[in-house]
TrEMBL record:
Its EC number is 2.1.1.297. Coiled coil: none annotated. Gene3D superfamilies: DNA helicase RuvA subunit, C-terminal domain, Vaccinia Virus protein VP39. Residues 23-74 form the Release factor glutamine methyltransferase N-terminal domain. Signal peptide: none annotated. It is an enzyme of class 2 (transferase). It comes from Alistipes dispar. This is Release factor glutamine methyltransferase. It comes from the Bacteria. InterPro entries: DNA_methylase_N6_adenine_CS, HemK-like, N5-glutamine_MTase, PrmC_N, RF_methyltr_PrmC, SAM-dependent_MTases_sf, Small_mtfrase_dom. NCBIfam families: hemK_fam, RF_mod_PrmC. Residues 107-192 form the Methyltransferase small domain. HAMAP family: RF_methyltr_PrmC.
Amino acid sequence: MTRREAIGHLAARLVPLYDPREARSIALAAAAGISGLTTTALLTDPGAELPAAERLEAAAERLAAGEPLQYVLGEAGFCGRPFVVRPGVLIPRPETEELVAWVLRGEVRSRRLLDVGTGSGCIAVSLALGLPGAELFAADLSDEALAVAAENARRLGARVTLRRADALHGLADAFPERFDAIVSNPPYVPESDRAAMHPNVRDHEPGMALFVPDDDRILFYRAIARAGRRLLLPGGRLYFEIYEHAAEETAQMLRQEGYSAVELREDLNGKPRMICSRLT
């Protein structure tokens, strides 16, 4: 099968799930990831045979069932680095790269940071590599996530101390250390948004990393902020990726919990998606 035929065949199978342009983009990325060829090579010599065409067919079955491309390839790019991802671990998003960039700029002199709800470890590993003079710690309740985070730290050469801990209960008890900053991208999607989400997210990514009750959509932020009063050094900072529709609610909660210098920032799409505050 030629490269053109393989990509066209896969794109056609994906059209029921995605618009034609996105379907072709996914098909091209899948062909590149599985064959080991660059997208440029695929496009400039479309009549050549595609290596590993049988593997692409197996991938097509998974993609046509709605499984995210990153799970099929076993990898997702984040901050310019390849991170291992598997079902059971949230796929890193570009918006979270903006949060990491903010922390990297603001914590140049920090000595110890904690990532709560680390998932694949993309935040903690990126910070460890970007702040080589700091100690990085990370917490997650999922054993599967901790295993993936540990694999990513090993593969990318980052020193991160991983511990199993629940963001909602006993987080401060799991960490006797004190931190200059805490970073977290916790669950924040209200359950009522579930039905409207794309099936490749809703039906395949871990619900425990995504959804919160409609009647308390900032419960993770509140719990981490309260734990932060014990975990942070005086003047320590708390960084969150947030739910855009709860930005002001989150900011007000932080002030009520004893934090000051609350700053909201918008992402590249102009949505309020990040917040930083300082322990008073």
